[in-house]
Amino acid sequence: MVSAPVTAIVRGMGPEATPAASIATRDAARWFALGVGSVAVAGLFALYLAIARIPGLETTLAPDPKFAHRGLIVHVNLALGVWFSSCIAALFCLLPGSRPGRVTPLAQLMALIGVVTFAATMFVRDAEPLKSNYVPTLDHWVFVLGIAVFGFAVAAGFLDRRLIPREGKSLLPPEARPGVRFAAVAYIASIATIIAAWQTQSEGLSPLQYYERLFWGGGHVQQWANVLAMVAVWLLLLSRVTGRKVVDPRLSTGLFALLLAPALAGPWLTGADMPAQYFTLLMRWGLFPVTSVLLLLCIAHLFQQRERLPKGALRGPAFTGFAVSATMTVMGFIMGSLIRGETTLVPAHYHMSLGAVTGAFMAALLELLGPLGAPLPGPRSRKWAAAQPVLYGVGMAMMAVGFGLAASGRKTYGTEQVVRSTGEVAGLVTMGIGGVISSIGGVAFLVLLIVALRARRRRG
After folding, report:
1. How far apart are CA 429 and CA 7, in angstroms?
2. What's the pLDDT at 4?
3. How wide is the angle at C-alpha 186 spanned by C-alphas 151 and 172, nearest 5°?
4. pLDDT digits (tens, 9 = 90+) for 158-200
5. Which of 63, 126, 226, 278 has its CA 20 to 30 A from that of 372?
6. CA distance 163 to 2
7. Residue 307: its pLDDT value, please?
8. Number of domain units in the chain
9. What pLDDT, in 10s, does the model give residues 47-98?
10. Are 427 and 445 in contact (CB under 8 A)?
11. Is position 45 within any domain?
12. In sequence order, which residues have a C-beta less than 8 Å from that of residue 204 and are 6 or more positions away?
């Protein structure tokens, strides 16, 4: 299901270089390809579901009433879970220490098998869709097997000597490297947290309760992996904007270690069967302080270098990607602090926060296209590359703000929604317009990748 997009992207990447550099870029390109391919398939399936709702076509394109719900769950896991995990794995591959004969190729193959397996479950009629938090689930062994294979495959890819700090050439600046390493550690901790939940499940839980607890703690810990990688990407992007080191690597190592530390409690909290709200409090107070300090250091560096910036430094995806991601992160923190109960402020917060991570990863890939062997071919495509993070970010921000203004119940759709005020109508309309704009930004991202790959093929 995702093999065609993945194959197309992988074939277009992979520059000739020294053996170690070639291994690193090839591995990174394959992980990026899996993430981008999954997002592309998720987008196509979302379009299919939209068309299938047209009167007269619903019984032909989606005769099973639960097909759309199963497809939505697969869509979310492809567009978020696979995308984030694959991008973190790709960045990890760019760390110094790559060598032949390691576990990465097998991990990539198993990850692809896992994705195809769980995605295929949407065609299984008796797979019951469950809207569990963090990992919405289909209650069927094939789906669970696919998710498990993918998760363990990504974690196995991190069990590499690149996890140990070492000197060497890398596309990642020294100050960003500990963030990527600790993101890998956080990902492994999230898998350990899920295992702890599985081993301590109570008897008599309903399927929704079972999967809610299974993924609750691990899903929270996964956010540390996302944020650690996002901040590392900020340092990468700003180093490409200014051409200089953003912070001292020793300082960044210490701050990244402080940022990681709360996540390491995840397996223990779950194994001890601590109340679920402990993870919410841990995430609220464990992510905000250090991330804010690192963001202030990034802004201070940019301010200090403002007179020495290379010509055109602010007109590329590195700067716009950082600016969009940083702004959305701050807005996500503000929205998170306003949450009171189960309202649409919850999805508003996580759409803003996850949008910040996605914006950073998109900008990083656009910036790394050249080193990966497929640079954007001309001034027009580079202008679009600078605009794409803004387009995506503005759309996601509008959608999140619209969610917040709507202030209705979570996970309600269509006739389930009860709209009581003009403010709620305005929020829902804003959310819809933002969704369209962010979708255009996502399509622009995919088009830019296709343009870069086609230009590479024409060159040789």
Report:
1. 39
2. 42
3. 100
4. 998 889 888 888 999 999 999 999 999 999 999 999 999 999 9
5. 226
6. 28
7. 87
8. 1
9. 776 666 666 665 666 667 788 888 889 999 999 999 999 999 999 999 998 7
10. no
11. no
12. none
> H helices then E strands: how many in the chain?
16, 2
**Rounded Cα gap, residues 261 and 310, in angstroms:** 37
Tokens describing residue 153: 């495959």
Which tokens belong to 61? Answer: 């394109």
Classify residue 49: in a domain, yes or no.
Answer: no
Label each residue of 113-136 as H, E or C: HHHHHHHHHHHCCCCEEECCCCCC
138 phi and psi angles, rounded to 5 deg:
-105, 125
Domain that includes residue 357, residue range: 314-460
| Assigned domain for 452 exists | yes
**To the nearest 5 percent, what fractions of the chain are helix, strand and coil?**
75, 0, 25
Cα 198 to its chain centre, rounded Å, is 24
In a domain, 330, yes or no: yes
Mean of the pLDDT values across residues 242-268?
95
Mean pLDDT, rounded, for 378-396: 92
Say which DSSP state 139 is in. Answer: E
pLDDT of residue 59: 61
From 384, 401, 281, select the one nearest 331 (Cα to Cα): 401
Contacts of 52 (CB under 8 A, 6+ apart): 58, 61, 62, 68
